Amino acid sequence: MIKLSFEKMTPETFDGLVKDIENARVLEAVVKEHKGVVFALYDGEKYTAASAMMFEMNDELLTEALRKLYLSGLYLSDKAEQGHDRMMLEYTVDQASYMGYDLLTARVALNDMDKIKFYTSHGFDKIVRADCDEDGEHLILQRDIKIKIKCCGFYR
Length: 156
What we know:
By secondary structure, the chain is of the alpha+beta class. It has five helices and nine strands. The protein is about 25% helix and about 35% strand. The chain is globular and about 40 Å long.
């Protein structure tokens, strides 16, 4: 039986995460410079998913006043089982709520309909703005984490 656990990443544990999820390397500065919080899902043998929450406006005072965090991304290993992305997202939302935040935003590419559908089906139902930059066109979606949503047949 596989026992899943969530872990908060530290500089000491980060190398293990990158070994299992190569594209999570982009989170190195977040962990080592304390720019946010990185969590990972561990299945007893390897990390299968990770998420990072960062201050929304790169200004701690404004972030705390607005009670808003930015979900900078969800990362999955090639061997992640179905549903690990949902579990990682809901754990991240729970942690943001526990930390005292009210809102969580995520940036999604405008042409990535699968991700837009994923986030909107998990409570990111408000479009805060649309961005266009050198990375392309994006939507900034927001979730009020105080509102309970129905997930997997249960209210959270």
